[in-house]
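Fill in residues.
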């Protein structure tokens, strides 16, 4: 089991003040990773782990916006754009509400869309399992790609 406080807590491309962060290879931004995988999945392309292996030292501490930029590049190369995106971030802490609009703005910027195309929801696991105990974060994303 990983030990320690981990890296700084980054979510949706924003560094958020929190007493612990992910123990991961890149910056561990669970939301940008899920958005990247949602776009890659909609394209039926390899997933983030296949394109940016955690065994490759180039990605150690890397900004997850790099991974998202590659997914966006692939999407645009196929003549597609993001129609809308719906993300659910599940964690006990930090609370998503106070930073939700800032995250929406950052995602809109990274994806090249208006904020009205981005929805973020914060949920908890009511203190049940690793997520509920504050040891993990879970993110679900659905992305609609349109011509």
């Amino acid at each position: 089991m990983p030990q320690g406080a981990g890296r700084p807590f980054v979510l949706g491309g924003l560094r958020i003040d929190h007493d612990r962060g992910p123990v991961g290879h890149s910056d561990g931004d669970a939301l940008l990773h899920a958005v990247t995988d949602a776009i890659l999945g909609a394209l039926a392309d390899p997933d983030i782990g296949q394109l940016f292996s955690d065994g490759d030292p180039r990605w150690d501490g890397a900004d997850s916006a790099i991974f998202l930029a590659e997914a966006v590049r692939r999407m645009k190369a196929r003549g597609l754009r993001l129609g809308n995106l719906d993300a659910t971030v599940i964690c006990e802490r930090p609370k998503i509400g106070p930073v939700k609009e800032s995250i929406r703005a950052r995602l809109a910027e990274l994806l090249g869309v208006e904020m009205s195309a981005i929805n973020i929801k914060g949920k908890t696991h009511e203190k049940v399992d690793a997520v509920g105990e504050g040891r993990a974060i879970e993110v679900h994303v659905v992305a609609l790609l349109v011509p």
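The longest helix spans residues 30-42.
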